[in-house]
User: Fold these one by one.
Assistant:
Number 1:
Amino acid sequence: MVQSIYSFIKGIRKVALLYVYILPFVLCHAASAQERSYTAYYSFTLPAVFLSKEDTIYVRKLLQLSDSLRYLNRDSALSVLTIAIDTSKRLGYYGGVAEAKMKYGQVVYLGGDYIEGKEHIAEAYYYCLNAGQDKKKMLALWYNNMSGPYSYLGNYDSAAALLLKGLQIVRQINDTSLMIRSYINLGAVLGNSGNYASSLYYLHKAEELAHYPGYSLYNAHLYYNLAVSHGGANDTLIQQLYGHKALKASREFRDLRMEILSLHTLGSNALYLRQFDEAIKYFEQAKELSGDRMPYYSFLAVRGMSQVYSGMNNLAKAKSTGIEALRLAAQTDLVEKTVSMQNYLVADILHRLKEDSAAYYYLNEYVQLNEKVNNIERNKTIDYLEVKNKVLEKDRVIALKELEVVRQNMYIRTRNTWVGIAALGMVMVLTVLFGFYYRTRKKMQLLEKEDEIRRLKAVMTGEEKERSRIARELHDGIGSLVSAAGINLNTLGDDNEELVDQASFKKTEDLIAEISAEVRKTAHNLMPEILLQHDLPEAVKLFCSYLQKEKRPAFEVQVYGDFQGLTKDFQLAVYRIIQELVQNIIKHSKASNAIVQLHADQNLLSVTVEDNGEGYDPAVLTGQGMGLGNIDTRVKVLNGRISVDTGVGKGTSVYIEFDL
Amino acid sequence: MSIRIAIADDHALITEGLEHMLHYSGNIEVVATYADGKELLGGLPSIDIDVLLLDISMPGQQGDELARIIARDFPGIKIIALTNLDNIYYIKSMLQQGVSGYILKNVKRSVLIGAIEHIYNGGEFLDPLVKERLKEEMEVVKKQAAYGSVLTRREKDVLKLIAENNTSKEIAEKLHLSKRTIDHHRESILSKMEVKNVSALVKKAIELGLITV
């Protein structure tokens, strides 16, 4: 019985040894932790205008984080991706949802749940379609991702079909990076199906593109798959070459998983070439890198070592490493051919060590495990077929569900837009109201100011009226009486010539003349009749001529322009200002010369009153005293502007202008 | 044959005083007296006079205005302004309207009678004080014609900046004033310097030593 078993074992021994060479091809997925250019790529293809850059960057960071976690801490990677999905949904960042969902699916199916993983990836499809301007790229990614679970389930035809469909889109958008990835995946899938020639065709296509600078990102995957594919095609030397390249690239990009896999392919290659020392070296390195974190890879490494020792006929070491390998396999809970075959390998070693009972135990383990594996494989196929139907139904349900989600999102977005519009409207209404309020207040202030001006004007008009009345009384009453007295006195003198020679007669005559002049001057000061009858410049000239007679500063009156069109009220008001300025010069300046200049053009009426007197410190006399306060008010009432240029010893120049 | 005169003055006392004054001259007859321009213009067509003694400041139409109308409508009447206004403005204004005499009210009887007779005979008469005022005025005009008008300080500042080739806008910025104000000054400067453009202005300003090169 035992013999017959051994003979059976011997028959399949070659198969078992061969099995170790063919490591699984590795698909290179949409995201690997080393995709440094990824963020850069997306930063200028953000799909929706509503997205704030910070938020999408946050999502991208989450996606990157999940990449670095996926092989080390699956659960953390999944929870990070869940956050990324929720955040992206909230933002309406469908590209982000799609990507996160695809990654979620990858992490799930790489953990062995192919069907569930596939479902997650399938869900991403509808988000890919809504990814705005990224739609095509996302769809290409989706086809690549979708091929993964099919490939792992051994459905290589479907996987290849999906990849070819993806490649079609990639060619449309002319995305070299994505094209390289598609070729690599296609090569891997075809390699897995044993079609090495086709596999190498696509892998070499990828290699051509990867030569261009900036596309070395997937070199580790590319070279590794090339190595495995060449190994499968029995080109062992070329396998070795690409194995080294893969090892170099994976180290360059700090891709631990690919480094381990590269070491495995090199180890297997060395074992095949019976370069046992080399092989041991590679497997030991692989074991060291895998450590406790990746027990499956540790198992593969130690298994490789036991195969090498077995080949070297170092049966003691072959036994210890072989059993160690099984211990590591137990940790992974994996039930697969590699594990069952390892039991057979150990049985073979023990048999060679003549430890037959122990060998029998492992042989038994092998048989049982093999049965299990075969069952699982069978079940898997049945499951797959069954699930396939379910999935199709589920896909439809999911599609409807996702469609609903998209609709709802659209609805929410629309609602948000309306809320936004409403808020904007409110803001606008408030702005308008505030503007209105502000204007009204300003208007009120203006009205108040106008009121004040009107009040001042009324006061001034009242003053002017009163002055006018007094002036007329002076002129008509006292003035005419004095004139009459003068005429009568003259007549008296003419009639009585002896009176004329008397001093008192002459004195009386002079007095009457003086009274007459004084009355005229006072009347003029009170109300410049000449202004009312003629214009401002004449009134000013007259006023200044009265002053000149009294040995005051010599006033030079200069007039430019036409004053005829101006209202009498306005001219009178300006006259009063000039009067006051002139009085100031007489009272305070001690000037010898002064200029009064009037100038009217189409736009402005200006008054310049300037003297060469003492001047004053403008800091000391700020509008008070000197009558400037009063002048300021008068100027303001007339909407004019006043500026005073003075300084101690500098004289004073007052410039006033009014808009006409 | 006596000289027929009329008096227009709003003060009865004055009119009376004048009548009394002229009464002593057997040669002059006061035909009518009027208290304002309206009465005067209404009455003149119905009387025949040689000389009118016309006050300047009266209610309603003023003396200079009345003088113009009368000179136009009654060219045969000689007008004497009889007023206590000795201001050059009124003097010039009345003389422009073609009055033959300008006499102040504190005039002596003999002088007044002499003046009326002189004017009646085709002469002109100006009160000595009025002559003096006219002389003063002539001197002012002469002086201004000789030296030009004095620039104000602000105008000097603006002139300097104009000479430095600044635009009105630039000057406005430098002096913290509006462009309108600067244009306004520019205009008065051009008027004072009696030039039409900036290059002539600068040339003249240099000639007059107002700016240095």
Note: DSSP finds ten helices and six strands in chain B.
Number 2:
Amino acid sequence: MNAFLLFIAHPAARIILWLVLMFAFIGFNGLILVWVERKVAAYVQRRPGPLHVGPQGLLQPLADAIKLMGKQLVTPVAGDKMLFWAAPLLAFAPVTVCFLPMPFEGRFNPLPMNLGLVLILAFSGLGVVSLCLAGWGSNNKWSLLGAARAVAQSVAYEVPLLLSVMAVAICAGSLDLYAIVRHQGAWPWQWYAMKNPLAFFIFLVCAVAETNRAPFDLPEAESELTAGFHTEYSGMGFGLFFLAEYANMVIVAGVAAALFLGGFQGPLLPGVWWYLLKIYSILFFIIWLRWTFPRVRFDQLLNISWKWLTPLALLDFALAVVVAGFRSIK
Amino acid sequence: MQTFDPSTMRGDISSIRFEPGSTQDKMILNMGPQHPSAHGVLRIMLELDGEYIIRAEPVIGYIHRMHEWIAEQKTYLQFMPNMGRVDYLHAMAWNWAYAGAVERLVGIQVPERAEYIRVVVTELNRISSHLVWWGAYLLDLGAFTPVMYAFDDREQILDILQAVTGSRLTYSYFTIGGVYEDVPADFSKRCTEFVKRLRSRLPMYRDLVTDNMILRGRCEGIGELSVDVARRYGATGPVLRGSGVDSDTRKSEPYGVYNRFEFRIPTYTEGDAMARYRVRLDELETSCDIIEQAVSSLPEGPVSAKVARVFKPPKGEASMAVEGARGKIIVHVRSDGGPKPYRVKLRAPGFSNMSLFAELARGTMLSDAVSILGSLDLVIPEIDR
Amino acid sequence: MIPECLAAMGATHVVAMNYAATGVVASVSLTPETILNAVEVLDKEGYLLEDVSASDLKEGFEIAYHFSLFEGKSRLVLRLIVSHDAPTVPSISRVYPGADWHERECFDFFGIDFTGHPNLHYLLLPEDFEGHPLVKAEKARKGLVDVMPQTWLVAVGLANPEVPKPEAPKAEKPEPQNAIVAGVKE
């Protein structure tokens, strides 16, 4: 399995194979993550969680997927049919692009590029458009409120996200995720999480907010908005939103692992396993957060972003520039 | 398949009265009868400007069962099970209010053992009601875990009360003149063990939930209620005690044997949702104190006075006020000398507390309205009766 | 044990009641003209509105307002009677906003019209419900002498102290000078 993809000379064929593998990865991940989420939620709440479908409930996500696929697809009568059904598909589209620059390991790289970080950041911002379409096309005031909240939240948390990522990129001197990973080492004290913990913290908070996960899950706040922007979706439409949310979570966890936790660098095991381990640790942490904290109110959410995270991120960025400048002078 | 044409659909009369004119920049929203955070079938019509509430009007009556009319068709004892269904979370208190009113009317003396048992089961019921409130309130605010812990504790109470009364939720354990049946032999032991266990869990709830920064941001300063407004709306119970008034029916009009126990009435002066939250959590400790004192001094004797099944009280009227988990429960009974009551009026504390909501929610955000609604601890079947 | 403020209400009768037997400390009989003033007196004293309820009697609808203080056994009941044909009473929701919903409930169950009420329409019953459920049939109605305790009847002059229960014909014809039942066409 050496030079896994590079043996395919034609770049288009390589990318297509990569996309197929990625869809498989996303789908499989979705199943695993559903199971992990339900089990973690269950153990936090002192109950066993899925137990009966398969050993320890491992086949439960499969049962859920079959159920979702079998449901009737209902379109709201007065909704905008095209927008309504475009939204879940659009939620999925950026995911595929965002997976391209992810540094699984050198030999898995389908398309060497030196602006991978920019690609990810740009396309992850597109996800909010699908929320807008969903909210508007449902012809439902609750969905509209959810969509409005989602837009404001996404926009607000983009800024500290970008700044914290820039801080790391300046330190590493490159926007290519592979280069940033290679600047770190295999051991924790060489990771950027140790060298720039503030950026790590800011990035994690923004990541949770960008993926609409609790405690920042106001757009889909169950107890206030009856499921917010995806109220009217049933069956596979809902399934696609669900899958897109988990895929987004994997992307941000992947970026966090690459930028701050050393990516595929690690002793003994092949790098891709370390990378997956780090991704899943961050995912576990994000899931754990959801079941512990209540929801933040909307204006408090924006306050946190504009009054706290953005100034801190700016400070961090400035410090990173100074440090990088000194290092390059030396 | 039925199709709807939105242009020809009219609203029902409540919404027509609510939106009299054009609402150019405002949005009319219905937190409809089915909603994850309406505590029962409650509908709130909202006029929103973005996220801010301009006007709020609750519409109730979706679970109105006309208990007051049913009371006139049944004999006094036959009506007792209905009281368990009015507020199913604190059924014992409603039982007590009705039984107490009829006992006042007839002049029955309740035996001492029955009085002590009444106190213990009512306080146990109060704890289970507050636990449900706590879990549901945090669920509204987005924390999915505390409700599981609360229900775990509550399960123990339900087991104890099932051994005593046979039911888990809608108790009709009281009878005119006492309680229906004696408690089993291990009752005192189980109560003491439960109290010990609950007391050991409360610090964890305080550290994990009450002191949580996000929760405090959602509750502090929300829905501030002044004493004057509360008084003029008739708010009672934790809603009133959260505004600084040290008023509890167990101390102001002692009934049963409450005047034999030492207990503290928690009061906080801020008047916001956090104050009401703290009052209820402190009341858990108060109830634990009362239960410990009562089971340790349970006297022997009969558990009910000898009263015929169908009796004719002398003509007159009587009222009985008890402290429910939600506030002051009053039952007024009027008799014309026959076997059935002439008029029974059920005064539900939630009814008065709910009418506060329209005023408290004005000018707040939608999330705050959800928080205020939860902090008022409403059980809609009690409001609708 | 009767509070002094009751004297300023212009009431027709103020009767001290036995708290242990009835749960109230005093019963005040008023008319639709004096109810607003009485309620304002209580508001100044700091009374809390507990409820507004009604009952269907021969003499008319008896509306009872229950008030109490925060502390102590202090429940008062203010009562007044309006006729069946023209059940009109001023609304007290200007003074006590909590009465808004209680009065709507009385309107729902009995059809009593509260003048000055900001939003008098159905509260609990469905919008297409016909009639008012708690209004009794003519022959099932009882009079005040049938439902009030003897001590109260004696105090307001509807019964003589020696005779334990007045004759049925006497109960049907109320005394003309008894202001409680003013408004009943006789």
Note: DSSP finds six helices and seven strands in chain C.
